[in-house]
Design goal:
Elements (H helix, E strand, L loop, with lengths): L8 H6 L3 H12 L3 E5 L6 H14 L4 E5 L9 H8 L3 H5 L7 E5 L3 H4 L5 H7 L3 E6 L4 H8 L2 E5 L29
Parallel strand pairs: 1-4, 1-5, 2-3, 3-4
Helix pairs in contact: 2-3
Protein backbone atom coordinates (compact mmCIF):
# COMPACT_ATOMS: atom_id res chain seq x y z
CA UNK A 1 0.00 0.00 0.00
CA UNK A 2 1.24 3.49 -0.82
CA UNK A 3 1.71 6.17 1.82
CA UNK A 4 -1.32 8.50 2.07
CA UNK A 5 0.35 11.46 0.38
CA UNK A 6 1.41 9.27 -2.58
CA UNK A 7 -2.14 8.25 -3.50
CA UNK A 8 -3.88 9.90 -6.45
CA UNK A 9 -7.19 11.61 -5.74
CA UNK A 10 -8.94 8.75 -7.59
CA UNK A 11 -7.24 6.17 -5.36
CA UNK A 12 -8.24 8.14 -2.25
CA UNK A 13 -11.83 8.28 -3.45
CA UNK A 14 -11.97 4.48 -3.91
CA UNK A 15 -10.55 3.66 -0.47
CA UNK A 16 -12.93 1.86 1.89
CA UNK A 17 -11.96 3.22 5.30
CA UNK A 18 -14.81 1.57 7.19
CA UNK A 19 -16.83 2.75 10.15
CA UNK A 20 -14.07 5.02 11.49
CA UNK A 21 -14.33 7.12 8.33
CA UNK A 22 -18.12 7.33 8.52
CA UNK A 23 -17.94 8.50 12.14
CA UNK A 24 -15.26 11.07 11.35
CA UNK A 25 -17.18 12.38 8.32
CA UNK A 26 -20.40 12.67 10.31
CA UNK A 27 -18.65 14.67 13.04
CA UNK A 28 -16.75 16.85 10.55
CA UNK A 29 -19.93 17.64 8.57
CA UNK A 30 -21.63 18.68 11.81
CA UNK A 31 -18.84 21.22 12.41
CA UNK A 32 -16.86 19.37 15.10
CA UNK A 33 -13.08 19.22 15.21
CA UNK A 34 -11.87 15.71 14.36
CA UNK A 35 -8.51 14.32 15.50
CA UNK A 36 -7.15 11.15 13.84
CA UNK A 37 -4.39 9.40 15.78
CA UNK A 38 -2.34 6.37 14.79
CA UNK A 39 1.09 4.96 14.07
CA UNK A 40 2.84 5.31 10.69
CA UNK A 41 1.03 3.35 8.01
CA UNK A 42 -2.33 3.28 9.80
CA UNK A 43 -4.11 5.37 7.14
CA UNK A 44 -4.27 8.77 8.86
CA UNK A 45 -3.26 10.84 5.82
CA UNK A 46 -5.49 8.86 3.46
CA UNK A 47 -8.45 9.35 5.81
CA UNK A 48 -7.66 13.04 6.18
CA UNK A 49 -7.54 13.49 2.40
CA UNK A 50 -10.78 11.54 1.87
CA UNK A 51 -12.49 13.66 4.53
CA UNK A 52 -11.33 16.76 2.65
CA UNK A 53 -12.75 15.38 -0.60
CA UNK A 54 -16.15 14.72 0.96
CA UNK A 55 -16.22 18.03 2.86
CA UNK A 56 -15.50 19.89 -0.39
CA UNK A 57 -18.22 17.98 -2.22
CA UNK A 58 -20.71 18.89 0.49
CA UNK A 59 -19.95 22.59 -0.03
CA UNK A 60 -17.56 23.02 2.89
CA UNK A 61 -14.29 24.50 1.62
CA UNK A 62 -11.15 22.92 3.01
CA UNK A 63 -7.43 23.68 3.00
CA UNK A 64 -4.97 20.78 3.29
CA UNK A 65 -1.93 21.83 5.36
CA UNK A 66 1.03 19.46 5.66
CA UNK A 67 3.06 20.85 8.56
CA UNK A 68 6.37 19.47 7.33
CA UNK A 69 6.01 21.66 4.20
CA UNK A 70 5.50 24.89 6.17
CA UNK A 71 8.48 27.18 6.67
CA UNK A 72 9.40 28.78 9.98
CA UNK A 73 7.06 31.63 10.86
CA UNK A 74 4.51 31.09 8.08
CA UNK A 75 0.88 31.89 8.69
CA UNK A 76 -1.97 30.15 6.86
CA UNK A 77 -1.92 32.77 4.08
CA UNK A 78 1.79 32.17 3.43
CA UNK A 79 1.26 28.42 3.32
CA UNK A 80 -1.68 28.68 0.90
CA UNK A 81 0.26 31.07 -1.33
CA UNK A 82 2.99 28.46 -1.77
CA UNK A 83 1.03 25.19 -1.58
CA UNK A 84 -2.64 26.06 -2.09
CA UNK A 85 -2.56 24.90 -5.71
CA UNK A 86 -1.66 21.37 -4.51
CA UNK A 87 -5.05 21.17 -2.80
CA UNK A 88 -6.71 20.13 -6.06
CA UNK A 89 -4.41 17.12 -6.42
CA UNK A 90 -4.65 16.19 -2.74
CA UNK A 91 -8.34 16.64 -1.91
CA UNK A 92 -9.92 17.44 -5.27
CA UNK A 93 -10.77 21.08 -4.57
CA UNK A 94 -9.14 24.48 -4.39
CA UNK A 95 -7.95 25.61 -0.96
CA UNK A 96 -10.39 27.75 0.91
CA UNK A 97 -13.26 27.76 3.33
CA UNK A 98 -13.52 27.29 7.03
CA UNK A 99 -12.03 23.80 7.49
CA UNK A 100 -8.29 23.17 7.85
CA UNK A 101 -7.03 19.63 7.26
CA UNK A 102 -3.84 19.53 9.31
CA UNK A 103 -1.42 16.68 8.50
CA UNK A 104 1.64 15.74 10.62
CA UNK A 105 0.04 17.45 13.62
CA UNK A 106 2.55 15.90 16.03
CA UNK A 107 5.10 18.43 14.78
CA UNK A 108 3.20 21.06 16.79
CA UNK A 109 4.55 19.57 20.03
CA UNK A 110 8.16 19.43 18.86
CA UNK A 111 8.41 22.75 17.00
CA UNK A 112 5.72 24.95 18.54
CA UNK A 113 7.53 28.25 17.93
CA UNK A 114 7.94 27.47 14.21
CA UNK A 115 4.16 27.05 13.82
CA UNK A 116 2.99 29.88 16.09
CA UNK A 117 1.60 32.02 13.23
CA UNK A 118 -0.01 29.08 11.48
CA UNK A 119 -1.73 27.97 14.70
CA UNK A 120 -2.93 31.55 15.31
CA UNK A 121 -4.62 31.58 11.89
CA UNK A 122 -6.04 28.07 12.17
CA UNK A 123 -7.66 28.69 15.58
CA UNK A 124 -10.52 30.58 13.90
CA UNK A 125 -11.51 27.52 11.85
CA UNK A 126 -12.72 23.97 12.18
CA UNK A 127 -9.76 21.57 12.41
CA UNK A 128 -9.57 18.02 11.07
CA UNK A 129 -6.09 16.78 11.91
CA UNK A 130 -3.87 13.69 11.76
CA UNK A 131 -1.30 12.87 14.46
CA UNK A 132 1.15 10.05 15.13
CA UNK A 133 0.96 10.89 18.82
CA UNK A 134 -1.33 13.26 20.62
CA UNK A 135 -1.19 15.56 23.63
CA UNK A 136 -4.88 16.12 24.33
CA UNK A 137 -4.34 18.91 26.87
CA UNK A 138 -2.26 20.98 24.44
CA UNK A 139 -4.56 20.15 21.55
CA UNK A 140 -7.61 21.30 23.48
CA UNK A 141 -5.87 24.57 24.37
CA UNK A 142 -4.83 25.14 20.74
CA UNK A 143 -7.99 24.16 18.86
CA UNK A 144 -10.68 23.15 21.35
CA UNK A 145 -12.46 19.89 22.01
CA UNK A 146 -12.91 17.40 19.23
CA UNK A 147 -13.85 13.89 18.25
CA UNK A 148 -10.81 11.59 18.43
CA UNK A 149 -10.35 8.42 16.37
CA UNK A 150 -7.52 6.01 17.14
CA UNK A 151 -6.42 3.93 14.15
CA UNK A 152 -4.47 0.67 14.31
CA UNK A 153 -1.46 -0.02 12.14
CA UNK A 154 -2.19 -1.81 8.88
CA UNK A 155 0.36 -4.11 7.30
CA UNK A 156 1.99 -2.23 4.43
CA UNK A 157 3.58 -3.85 1.40
CA UNK A 158 6.83 -2.04 2.18
CA UNK A 159 8.04 -0.22 5.29
CA UNK A 160 6.83 3.35 5.58
CA UNK A 161 9.15 5.43 7.74
CA UNK A 162 9.09 9.15 8.33
CA UNK A 163 12.12 9.82 10.49
CA UNK A 164 15.56 11.24 9.88
CA UNK A 165 18.33 8.69 9.53
CA UNK A 166 20.21 8.75 12.79
CA UNK A 167 19.68 7.83 16.42
CA UNK A 168 16.07 6.77 15.86
CA UNK A 169 17.30 3.60 14.15
CA UNK A 170 19.67 2.36 16.87
CA UNK A 171 18.62 -1.12 17.91
CA UNK A 172 16.03 -1.39 15.14
CA UNK A 173 15.96 -3.19 11.85
CA UNK A 174 15.20 -1.00 8.86
CA UNK A 175 15.01 -1.29 5.12
CA UNK A 176 16.44 1.49 2.99
CA UNK A 177 15.25 1.77 -0.58
CA UNK A 178 17.65 3.59 -2.90
CA UNK A 179 15.99 5.19 -5.89
Amino acid sequence: MKAGEELSIHEVEKLDLGEDFKLALSRALSGANVYIVGPPGSGKTAMLRKLGLYLSRSGRGAAYVKLEWAKYGWGLGDYLKHYGARNIGLIGAEAGGDVVLLDDGELLWSYSSAYRNLVRDVRQRQVVAAFREIDMDTLTILFGDGFTIYLQRQVAARPVVKAPLGLGFIGRTSEIVVI
